Automatic annotation (TrEMBL):
Phosphoprotein listed as a keyword: no
Functional note: Catalyzes the hydrolytic deamination of guanine, producing xanthine and ammonia.
Amidohydrolase-related domain span: 71-436
PANTHER family: GUANINE DEAMINASE (PTHR11271)
Name of the top EC class for this enzyme: hydrolase
Pfam families xrefs: Amidohydro_1
Keywords linked to the UniProt accession: Hydrolase, Metal-binding, Zinc
Full protein name: Guanine deaminase
InterPro entries xref list: Amidohydro-rel, Guanine_deaminase, Metal-dep_hydrolase_composite, Metal_Hydrolase, Metallo-dep_hydrolases
Protein's UniProt keywords contain Transferase: no
Cofactor note: Binds 1 zinc ion per subunit.
Family assignment from sequence similarity: Belongs to the metallo-dependent hydrolases superfamily. ATZ/TRZ family.
Transmembrane segments: none
Length: 446
């Protein structure tokens, strides 16, 4: 299929699973159509329903027969680092040493525009081949690297949120901006990219230790000037980090209070990790309608701790799932959900697969105020969706065979759960962005 014709209608037959509305109870408020049709026109979803109900309307159309496969909304990864693609799975140490030994040297390479452009292309390919159609992405300190990423995403017509990292201390000098430069370059990037096509900007102070008070204040001014830009940073990930923040900001009541003081805590602010919060921080995240990015793979990899999802549920705080590549060890959000399940097991609060799916589709979209365009399969939304193959290899075929009857999936939760443990890139049969197939397993598409 391509989009050269003015009215390009495409009809897909598969099992369909999504959450059509915001809910605090994803395990009951899902929509499952075992033998369904999904219809797109140009970049939008225009119809969804059961094959039996809809087929008469689409008799004259060619139908893409995807029976036995599961269509879900395009996956949303709410916190990851594009320049860290190449250093994923680097051995040893916890957060602060890991930043110094691997992260900063790698991010310094992005002063070179050609290099940034090359990695941006690889990064976006990794996203789509893993079924991720939207990311909330940290770039490097270099303005040009953010431009390279936005340029590449706009060519794919992707809904991508990203920002230039701001840091003016406690990192190598070649990676430091200043309060004024951080403000100027962030503002220029907002003007260039925020709201352009499907792109959006996120103000991105790396984390409190690498920003001076002046820099946080400068970014707070921008946040006020641009009330609809997103904000992303890290919060309460590692015990040494937290102690460092306490020493650097002695006047502040808590780690979150540092960001709050400068107007950086609001709806659309996404805080990575949040592993060791004080009660008042939980309450403030709730009252501000801010979002926590739960990064299970990263938190295990860096030995940072176990996120208390149950506590977030009790406080009614927005939680989205995130890979946090390259401290996270996989781009695959299904695998990330598998890691989240294991973390929750250790906390004796199991995570059901539907809640996991919600946190990387509709729930994540709601947290970003984007549920009218992404995160579900509703008519009128952008046609970002993923076709999963439950039988992508010998083992998964064996594991899921009893869950598939007459070429339709009879137990979608069970299939999803098995895939959250077994998935790799072959699980993602196809990825669609704005109605276009941008990835098919074992096939080069342009
Ligand atoms: N805290 C500050 N920067 C980073 C980063 O790049 N990755 C992670 N996991 N935590 C951080
Ligand atoms: Zn991170």
């Amino acid at each position: 299929a391509n989009s050269t014709m003015q009215q390009q209608v495409n009809v897909y037959r598969a099992s369909l699973l999504d959450f059509p509305a915001p809910t605090s109870n994803p395990s009951s408020d899902f929509r499952y159509i075992q033998d369904g049709l999904l219809v797109t026109r140009n970049s939008k979803i225009v119809d969804i329903g059961s094959y039996n109900n809809l087929i008469s309307s689409y008799k004259s159309h060619t139908i893409s027969d995807l029976r036995g496969k599961l269509i879900i909304p395009g996956l949303i990864d709410s916190h990851l680092h594009f320049p860290q693609t190449e250093m994923l799975a680097s051995y040893g140490e916890q957060l602060l040493e890991w930043l110094n030994n691997y992260t900063f040297p790698t991010e310094a390479k992005f002063a070179d525009d050609d290099y940034a452009t090359k990695i941006a292309s690889i990064f976006l390919h990794q996203l789509v081949s893993n079924g991720t159609t939207t990311g909330m992405v940290f770039s490097t300190v270099h303005k040009s690297a953010a431009d390279a990423l936005f340029n590449a995403a706009s060519k794919l017509n992707m809904c991508l949120i990203a920002g230039k990292v701001c840091m003016d201390r406690h990192c190598p000098v070649e990676l430091q901006d200043s309060p004024a430069l951080a403000q100027q370059h962030s503002a220029e990037l907002i003007e260039s990219w925020h709201g352009k096509g499907r792109l959006a900007y996120a103000l991105t102070p790396r984390f409190a230790p690498t920003s001076s008070e002046q820099q946080l204040a400068a970014l707070g001014e921008l946040a006020k000037q641009y009330p609809d830009v997103y904000i992303q940073t890290h919060l309460s990930e590692n015990l040494n980090e937290i102690e460092w923040v306490r020493q650097l900001f002695p006047k502040h009541r808590s780690y979150l209070d540092v960001y709050d003081q400068y107007g950086l805590v609001r709806k659309g602010s996404v805080f990575g990790h949040c592993l060791h919060l004080q009660d008042e921080e939980w309450r403030r995240l709730k009252s501000a309608q801010a979002t926590i990015a739960f990064c299970p793979s990263s938190n295990l990899f860096l030995g940072s701790g176990l996120f208390e999802l149950e506590k977030a549920r009790q406080h009614g705080i927005n939680v989205s799932l995130a890979s946090d590549v390259g401290a996270g060890t996989s781009f695959n959000m299904l695998r990330t959900m598998g890691d989240a399940y294991k973390v929750c097991q250790l906390k004796h609060n199991p995570l059901c697969p539907l809640e996991g799916l919600y946190m990387m589709t509709q729930g994540a979209a709601c947290n970003l105020g984007l549920e009218h365009t992404i995160g579900n399969l509703n008519t009128g939304t952008d046609a970002d969706f993923v076709v999963l193959d439950p039988a992508f290899n010998e083992l998964s075929a064996l594991r899921t065979q009893h869950l598939i009857e007459e070429r339709t999936i009879s137990a979608p939760q069970d299939v999803l759960f098995a895939l959250s443990m077994l998935a790799d890139e072959r699980t993602i049969f196809q990825t669609y962005i704005a109605g276009n197939c941008v990835h098919q397993v074992n096939k080069e598409l342009n």
